[in-house]
Amino acid sequence: MKAFVLDRYGKKEALRAADVPEPELREDEVLIQVHATAVNLLDAKLRNGEFKLILPYRTPFVLGHDVAGVVVRVGPRVRQFKLGDEVYARPDDFRIGTFAELVAVKEDSVAIKPRNISMEEAASIPLVGLTAWQALVEKARLKKGQKVFIQAGSGGVGTFAIQLAKHLGATVATTTSAGNAALVKSLGADVIVDYKKDAFEKRLSGYDVVLNSQDGKTLRKSLGVLKPGGSLISISGPPDPRFAEDIKAPWVVKQVVRALSFGVRRQARRLQVGYAFLFMKASGSQLRQITPLIESGTIRPVIDKVFPFEATNEALAYVESGRAKGKVVIKVR
Prior knowledge:
It is built from eleven helices and 16 strands. It is of the alpha/beta class. It starts with a strand and ends with a strand.
């Protein structure tokens, strides 16, 4: 099968188009013929080697964390899916590889694709949808009437998280440029801060939840917009000790993680707010809860560009440029 392979870590490393063996199918997995995949900043960060400490992939390997496609084979222990099912998924860590014509995904991480959208739209959802769900529903337990600050509202996670937060009944603030203000407003943002003109930390206060996706400086400012008892959930780091426990990290990694997050955790304690790092996990059951929100029109996929499969490197570069509104998708089939 055709795939895009990472041969060695590095910011300047291009993915190599190659013919590679089909993935080995385990007993509890389905083999998906990839119709579309999407590019996430996570792919660029993995390629750059930024997650080697917590995700030590051995090169060469195939990148890609989103898939929409058709089931073409099932393992002997699979009960929920059959040949021909149209599905979507975020494969588990160490089983990624959707920049390819076929990918094997654990049954528990797969869901039937929403009926009312295309393969390209479906491929745009899993990683950002699960990230927003795990941050706002699972960790923050966001409730009706609460206030949430979602950074970078026009990005992949932001466009989904704004819509989910509105569905949960929250008041939503976000940052974006003036050119994207109409987009985030149409998704449900109530308070829009033009980050090129205004300092969000001067305009926002008394928030219950912050979803942080930016750098360390922005994270520290964001802690100050929370009310006492509020919580900041960061998808961009630094990892915290609880995360190290969850992934059963070696003792040395636990100490490194503790040191990396020490300053942020100390500041959070001083302000009487919570800090948690989220590295989203694959989950078919959560995708099944997201599906009706897509089918009812409560949440709509936001796609900036669709690239052909042969332009996978260009798609990755476009995501890294930071200019994308919503998701960047690769049409494989």
